[in-house]
Design a protein that fits this description.
single chain, about 575 residues, mainly alpha, 18 helices, about 80% helix, globular
């Protein structure tokens, strides 16, 4: 009996655990399934939260802020341009078109140079020594200076005789040469900034005074190169017949003017680099950019000092014009070569301080905005900087108009016109360079986002070239032409008056209340003003009519009028002062 009990106990012991497991297994399965279901639900919730976070738009993030400011600012900027180019005062319209023209020229030049320079840095300079970098950057300068010579020689028609081509009319090529001269002078100018700036960064970075030594070094280097190019131009110009014709003279004059802009633009930038080094204690990089912490740590006093340097540069930019006007008689007594040298040095001096004023205002405003805790994002700061400088520049146009009205730039029209032209150039640098900086950031972002498809340097090159292909023809065909037409009108008082009277005649024709007799009288007076403005009488006709009375016969009777005046003189009457009327 005991043996049976023991056997049963042993059997129960051996079977107890399997039976317990079998009893609990369904429960464990249910628990395991529930846990898996909970894990799946949690994973779905996490994925859903991530998708919601991705799709949720933060209205205050820097990218959205930059886009918003760009959209709002662009609309306001465009409407401001419409106001200015249609302003009743003709001088305001002319200054506005000049600023727009300079802005687009600077914009295209900087965009193209940055694109080409990016490829050179990524595929030629990278990995090289210090001397290699300086040498390559200087070779870029020589390349763009040489390209300037060839492009202007070709577009001016000065070398057409070398292959038997026909010489175009001067009136046809003037606008074409001016457009290419502006573009390539600014391209070569930024190449000079890059070349001499590389030398400043690598070898002259010990102190502000040492950094400023690049200015006389660059001055001498550019003058030597200019002299070499001048010898080549003279040789080519006299190669066919031993004399310089009108087209070859145009080539030489436009090239020299472009070379003056190159020297002024580049040397002034390098001087402002040294000034910023002295004020902040840190030399900015080759492109004038500072590290994030340094860029946002400038005090208000440092900004004021830089603005003050800009004001001093503005005053000094007027000095060459006043000195040249005062000692003009003495300069004419010099030899021709000495006169040319004095003229070149004076022009470069003037450009140096004119562009220096622009660079000081640009970086002073940039310091003020970066230190105002507006934003730490370069894209947003670039857009705000461009909008602020654009508004300031166009508002300065009205101040410029008042300065001319009250003869604050001198009583002599030529001196005043020269001063205005330099100020307009400075404003164009301000606006054009600021907008290019904003677009440069945008182009960099797009290029880096497509890095898997194309190297960023080539993406930037492609986008820059496409943008310039759209902008440059429109600037050359419409904006620059309008600017030149307005400038020519101001050089000829008769032509200016004729255009004002044409507007009056149009108003008379569109007014249905004006009688036919009044229109006939207005038409006759318009013909008289046209003869006076354009000098349409021939010499023989003038001699024949000498001493005779000039009569106008109308339905109202016969009236004696003044004889037509043949001479065409420089405009001394401003548009707002023209009071002649077709109705007498």
């Amino acid at each position: 009996m005991k043996t049976k009990v023991n056997i049963v106990r042993r059997m129960w012991s051996s079977l107890r655990f399997p039976l317990q497991v079998a009893a609990v297994a369904p429960l464990l399965s249910v628990i395991r399934a529930s846990a898996q279901e909970v894990a799946v639900q949690q994973q779905k919730q996490q994925q859903q939260q991530q998708e919601e976070a991705t799709n949720t738009v933060d209205p205050a993030n820097p990218v959205n802020a930059s886009i918003s400011v760009m959209l709002l600012g662009s609309i306001g900027f465009q409407m401001l341009l419409f106001y200015l180019v249609n302003w009743p005062d003709r001088d305001i319209r002319r200054y506005s078109w000049q600023v727009i023209s300079q802005t687009i020229s600077i914009f295209c030049a900087v965009l193209l140079f940055q694109a080409f320079n990016g490829i050179v840095e990524d595929y030629i300079i990278e990995g090289g020594s210090m001397l290699w970098e300086v040498g390559v950057d200087m070779m870029q300068l020589v390349f763009w200076l040489t390209a300037l010579q060839f492009v202007l020689a070709f577009t001016s028609g000065a070398i057409n005789d070398l292959w038997g081509g026909e010489a175009p009319a001067v009136e046809v090529v003037e606008l074409r040469v001016k457009s290419w001269a502006l573009l390539f002078s600014h391209l070569a100018g930024f190449a000079a900034i890059n070349g001499w700036g590389s030398l400043q960064q690598q070898m002259l970075n010990d102190s502000p005074l040492v950094a400023a030594a690049i200015v006389p070094i660059g001055w001498v280097g550019l003058l030597v190169m200019y002299k070499g190019y001048d010898i080549v131009r003279e040789s080519v110009s006299r190669m066919d017949d031993g004399e310089k014709d009108e087209l070859e003279t145009l080539w030489d004059e436009e090239t020299e003017e472009a070379e003056h802009d190159i020297a002024g633009l580049s040397l002034s930038f390098l001087m402002v680099q040294a000034l910023r080094f002295h004020i902040s204690g840190v030399l900015p990089d080759q492109e004038g950019i500072e590290d994030g912490h340094i860029a946002t740590s400038h005090s208000a006093w440092q900004c004021k000092i830089l603005f003050g340097c800009g004001l001093v540069s503005f005053v000094l930019s007027l000095m060459p014009l006043l000195l040249e006007s005062r000692f003009q008689a003495s300069i004419h007594d010099f030899e021709e070569s000495t006169q040319e040298l004095v003229a070149r040095v004076t022009e470069i001096w003037n450009n140096f301080f004119t562009f220096g004023n622009a660079w000081c205002l640009f970086y002073g405003t940039k310091w003020a905005l970066a230190s105002s805790d507006l934003s730490s994002e370069d894209a947003l700061l670039g857009v705000v900087l461009a909008l602020v400088l654009s508004a300031t520049s166009f508002l300065f146009i009205f101040l410029l108009d008042k300065m001319v009205d009250h003869h604050l730039l001198g009583e002599e029209s030529e001196v005043a016109d020269a001063a205005i032209e330099k100020l307009i150039t400075a404003l164009g640098v301000l606006v054009g360079f600021s907008w290019e900086q904003s677009f440069d950031v945008a182009v960099d972002v797009v290029a880096e986002s497509n890095e898997e498809r194309m190297p960023p340097a080539f993406s930037k090159m492609l986008m820059s070239v496409l943008l310039v292909l759209i902008v440059f023809p429109a600037w050359r065909l419409y904006i620059l032409r309008t600017e030149r037409d307005l400038a020519e009108d101001d050089l000829d008082e008769g032509r200016l008056k004729l255009k004002v009277l044409c507007e009056q005649q149009r108003d008379l024709l569109l007014n249905k209340e004006v009688e036919e007799r009044t229109l006939d009288l207005a038409h006759l007076r318009m013909k008289q003003y046209r003869r006076e403005a354009l000098g349409s009488h021939s010499t023989a006709h003038s001699a024949l009519c000498a001493g005779r009375k000039h009569l106008r016969v109308t339905v109202g009777g016969i009236a004696e009028v003044e004889a037509p005046v043949e001479s065409r003189k420089r405009a001394t009457t401003r548009h707002s002062e023209i009071t002649q009327s077709l109705l007498g």
